[in-house]
Structure formats: C-alpha cells, structure tokens
Design goal:
One of its GO terms (molecular function) is GTP binding. Its EC number is 3.6.5.2. By secondary structure, the chain is of the alpha/beta class. The chain contains six helices and eight strands, in the order ββαβαββαβαβαβα. The protein binds guanosine-5'-triphosphate (GTP). The site of guanosine-5'-triphosphate has 21 residues, from helix 2.
C-alpha cells in the first residue's frame, strides 16, 4: 500500500504554535511497535531524510477527530498511530504527531483527539479552536448509535458554516461509520452514511477500528488526498497552555486538566 510509517508517534506540547512545534518535546517512550502489517513498511530514518533523498517537499496536515461519546475516536486514532486496538482508552485531550510516507512524499500528521464533553460552553470554545487549527476533519459515528450519526450530520453543517470555512468550496471532511464489526446491532444503514457524505461533498468510510487496520489507514489516506487538493492557507497557531500527554498515557485512564 501507499503508506509507510517512518517514526514513532510524538505527542506535542502546545504552548507554542503548531508550526513551531515541529521541534516538539518527545515524551516517555511510546508503547512497543506492533508487528508491521504486510502492506506497510517502516521507512529507514526520519521523514526529513527521505525528503532529502527524494527531493520531495514534506507536507504537514492538522486533522481533528470529532464525534459523540464512545463512538471510537480514540480507537481510530490509536489504530492509525500504533496499528493496535487496545479496547479501552484514556479520557485525554491529545494531539499526536507522526510521520508517514504517502506516494513517495513525507507527510507529518498532527491528530487532535479529544473526549466528548457535555459541557456546552467548553465544547463551543474548543470547537472554534479546532476549526481554526484543522486542515481536515474525521467525523465519527457508531453504526449502532443513531444519535451519534445525527450529531455527525449536525457537525458537518457546523463546520461548513463556520467563519473559517465560509467561501471555501471544499472542506476536507471524512464521515466515518465505526464499529462495522457490530453489524448485528446496526441502527444506521450504510446508505444513510453514504448519502450524508454525498449530499455534503464529504468522503465516506465504514470501518471497524477493532477489526480492520487497513480501512482505518484508507480513511486517513483519503482525507490527506482531499487536503492536498484544497490545501488551505497557513493555519493560525493555537494558544493553549498545553495539551500534553505522552503516547503511553493512551493506555491509562486519566483526564487531563491542562486545557
Ligand atoms: N466492537 C467495537 N468496539 C469499538 C470499536 N471502536 C471502539 N470500540 C469500543 O468503543 C468504546 C469507546 O471507544 P473510544 O475510542 O474510547 O471512543 P471515543 O469516541 O474516543 O470516546 P470518548 O473519549 O468518550 O469521547 C471502547 O470500549 C472501545 O473498545 C470498534 O470498531 N468495534
């Protein structure tokens, strides 16, 4: 396949702008690497070395993962970053960074995964920050949870009508129906997801973070392709005191108080 993992994921400390955070602090050692699936090969050295040898311009993309509670946002993020499905995930606000090679070109993905919050005021303010920061969106619902699908439908509209995207022809959004393995409990049909995506000019994937690594890779690949097509102007930096968790924190149940 097209993607090569080229380094271990890093969790960035956001007390400076994202673009300058390319010199992000590495944190305690990440969990051990999963066995590399046959379609993916680790590239030797860092993405930058590949950049030099291939004379290709390295791309960086900010991706926000959104959706209601327990739809599998963290599961999808961790699947992409580590190849693993670990079952339970910490309720932590995190931005992870990882280098990939995509069609011969180095790509750094910064992925913002946050737990769903019922605190509307906090959620509102976070939403604005996310939209300002993001180059692309992964909007996740569970195929067993109709309310989560309705929420994604509303999110698409909210994102598209936000002032950051007004006048933008195409907003890179992928609608993701997760938990495909639980088809016996399905309450949202594939056609509904597909129709939503079609009518709003989004991409659509049905996946199982639990059972299928390659479909998870495919959805992020699709999104990066969209981002490349509609490459936006430079995003404004965030001004957080710090969203800081190491990759190892994914494996513990802790809530960050750093926002
Ligand atoms: N069967 C199945 N379970 C899944 C899948 N993806 C996630 N889960 C489970 O769903 C639960 C919630 O997953 P999370 O990844 O924590 O969901 P989240 O959207 O990040 O949840 P919040 O952080 O609460 O917003 C966990 O018990 C996961 O093991 C999947 O594809 N199939």
């Amino acid at each position: 396949m097209w993607w090569l993992l080229s380094s271990t994921p890093t969790c960035l400390r956001y007390n400076c702008s994202l673009r300058t955070a390319a010199v992000a602090q590495p944190h305690p050692p990440p969990p051990p690497h999963p066995p590399t699936p046959s379609t993916l090969q680790p590239s030797p050295g860092s993405g930058m070395e590949r950049l030099n040898s291939n004379a290709l311009v390295k791309m960086e993309a900010n991706i926000v993962v959104m959706g209601t509670e327990s739809v599998g946002k963290s599961a999808l993020t961790v699947r992409l970053l580590t190849g693993k499905f670990i079952g339970e995930y910490g309720d932590i606000e995190s931005i992870y960074s990882r280098d990939f090679t995509l069609d011969g070109r180095g790509v750094t993905l910064n992925i913002w995964d946050s737990p769903y919050s019922e605190d509307l005021a906090a959620e509102m303010s976070l939403f604005c920050k996310k939209v300002r920061w993001a180059d692309g969106y992964v909007l996740v619902y569970s195929i067993c949870d109709r309310a989560s699908f309705n929420a994604v439908s509303r999110l698409v509209q909210r994102i598209k009508s936000s002032k950051d995207h007004l006048g933008t022809d195409k907003v890179p959004i992928v609608v993701v129906g997760n938990k495909k393995d639980l088809h016996h409990r399905r309450t949202v049909q594939s056609e509904e997801g597909r129709l939503l995506a079609l009518s709003t000019d989004c991409l659509f994937y049905e996946v199982s973070a639990a059972e299928n690594y390659h479909s998870v890779i495919a959805l992020f690949h699709g999104l990066v392709d969209r981002i490349k097509d509609v490459r936006p102007v430079m995003k404004r930096p965030l001004r957080f005191k710090g969203i800081v968790k190491s990759m190892s924190a994914v494996f513990t149940r802790r809530r960050t108080d750093s926002l």
